[in-house]
Amino acid sequence: MGLFKNGKSKGDIRPRDDPPQYGDVAPALSPATASNPLCAVSAPVQPQQTLPPNHNLGAPGYAAPAPAYQAPIPQQFPPVFGVYKDPFSWTLVIGLHRNAPPIYAISRNFAIADRPAIIIHSGPNATYPAVAAMDRLPLTRDRPITMPPLPGSPHPSSEAILHVEAGFFSAKWWFDIETGFPGRHERYEWRRSRGDIVANLGTDWSTGWKLVRLDSRPPEGAPPGTTFSPAADTSASDGAEIVAVWGLNSLSMHKVGMFAFHGTGASGLLGERWAVMAVISALAIMDHEQHRG
To answer: Compositional bias (Basic and acidic residues) spans (predicted)?
Structure first.
């Protein structure tokens, strides 16, 4: 959909309640613009290959949107955003800060069996079409995710699975998704973290989650000659690149959590389909934690 246009590079992406300068946000789609129950995210636009020679996607300072693109890659979500409670309903909203106009609504279902547990809508309230939806299933912790159709697919939607592996102290969540231009399957894992990259979100939980990319190659669609070497502060202990972080708030009356894209995740090269999966999988973790608590 390309609703967002990246602004200039920021040296510090630490979230705060002041509105970040991420550029203009295009008006949301009208509910009447899509009859499909899942509002299809348009095929990602091939970026202009204007990265300088020997550009390193994992270099320090790449936590903000890539400034080297003359024409920024359209992206579904801002690079840093909060999830907030709507004071007038059970709906959550995605926004740049609490007092900013909401960008997307998140509706939740706690009881009705034939409705998804979580839906991300394509506009600021729940009357807008769904971008993605998550279900809970009996007898399994895995979460089926209903996604927009793949480009060129005759089907109205597609499905991805958010898997969970229960450990002795914590669970590990993982998924496979098509990424890049034109797209290849890659695996990503949400891991618990107490590191600075999560602490910088400013949430009140002592731990959060980091999303790591297990593929060490530059993503499909990166200009020829692009190198890939994640910086130490955006790498997991096994060297995997951290592409997003997610932290929850339990003490705030308004803020549910903060989300930030990093490195390759902030570049747009992984595509909007990946970004949607990253966000709804983070919300699935939130749903799991709330039910567990």
So the answer is: 9-19
